[in-house]
Amino acid sequence: MKKIGLDVAVIGATGAVGEVFMRVAFERNFPIRNLRLLASSRSAGKQVKYGNEVLTVLETNEEALEGVDLVFCSASSEVSKVWGAWCREREIIMIDDGSAFRMDEDVPLVIPEVNGNDLDAHNWIISIPNCTTTPLVMALNAMQQVSSIKRVTAATYQAVSGTGAAAVQELIDQNSSLSQGSDISTPEAYPVQIAQNVLPHVDDFGEDGFTKEELKMRNETRKILHDYDLPFAATCVRVPVLYGHSEVVHVEFASEVSLVDLGNALSLQDGLVFDDDQTNYVTPLEAADCDDTFVSRLRFDPSVDNGVVFWCVSDNLRKGAATNAIQIAESLLQRGILSES
Ligand SMILES: NC(=O)c1ccc[n+]([C@@H]2O[C@H](COP(=O)([O-])OP(=O)(O)OC[C@H]3O[C@@H](n4cnc5c(N)ncnc54)[C@H](OP(=O)(O)O)[C@@H]3O)[C@@H](O)[C@H]2O)c1
């Protein structure tokens, strides 16, 4: 009997996100009939585990993609653009983890718990937000149920896994060299050493002195909340943490708010865990390998009218990438946009 499910291709299966994608898809029992693991020619022939199966990685090309029902892409913008165009021509949905299409008008940028309805207007490519945008917007979405948001500022503390598998290895190697008292090799993932350091520099520099990561956070937040003029400024910082992005967020509201009302709204947000004990907090180490976004240390910001500040943490590879992508696919199935055969 023919197995029901989807023929799925994962482009970037050997990367930091791709590896977590495989774990999350298996844990959530995502209905995969055939799984094609794709990467660059460098990885062709590599063996990768999916549950109890061992699958062989193939080079990404037309032959490897022929006949698929759904493509997940977690590689580079260049790769996304090539295979995104290919999918569109063939009316195959591609869920893209990268930034290539996020701001395109005809591409939904989706966190299912926040703006899942935007999926209905897809044009075959669907983007997931940047891994710092997703947890932030989940918290803002909850809070705007209490009062409309007038202004947001944020500072991030981002793990090296946000840069990819090579950056994870670089931090591990630098830590190891430093503990043995030997010189570290020339940094490649970042302009300078990341071990025992903090870099106020995530992605390239863009306009007005902001980095592209900071601009992504602003523009994506506005798009997902459909609030295109929202005053927003962020400073994104890379820290020597392996997994989990943290953020300090200041929010100003249009009217007076109570911490109880905000806390209740945060507690009602799907996918978010709020701790109302102001002396408790969740660290990135605790959030690693979890799908939830954690908000704690909510308090008034006495420097402005109607302002609060809070601490927010989530696993950048799970809710920041793989889990959100799979939840989008699950939502497409529930909405009948995608169907198993
Ligand atoms: N890391 C995060 O926290 C995070 C969060 C949200 C979104 N994202 C986005 O997800 C994407 C992947 O990030 P990552 O952190 O997983 O990066 P990564 O660890 O560097 O992995 C990159 C993947 O892309 C593959 N690749 C490279 N060139 C290719 C080509 N020409 N054709 C097909 N595959 C190719 C690599 O394969 P080889 O092994 O063969 O080189 C590898 O599997 C990026 O767009 C990133 O912005 C990342």
**Count of all domains:** 2
Q: What's the N-to-C terminus distance?
A: 12 Å
Strand residue content: 15-25%
Give the overall shape, derived from the CA principal axes: globular
Give start-end ranges of low-pLDDT stretches. none
Series of H and E elements: EHEEEEHEHEHEHEHHEEHEHEEH
Please tell me the overall pLDDT: 97
Text of the CATH class of the largest domain: Alpha Beta
Cα Rg: 20 Å
Question: Helix tally?
Answer: 10
Query: Main beta sheet: strand number and arrangement?
Result: 6 strands, parallel
- Into which percent range does the helicity of residues fall? 25-40%
Q: What is the correct CATH architecture of the largest domain?
A: 2-Layer Sandwich
Task: Give the class from helix and strand content and strand pairing.
Answer: alpha/beta
| Order of strands, widest sheet | 5-2-1-6-7-8
Bound molecules: NADP nicotinamide-adenine-dinucleotide phosphate
Q: What is the CATH superfamily classification of the largest domain?
A: Dihydrodipicolinate Reductase, domain 2
CATH topology type of the largest domain: Dihydrodipicolinate Reductase, domain 2
Number of E strands: 14
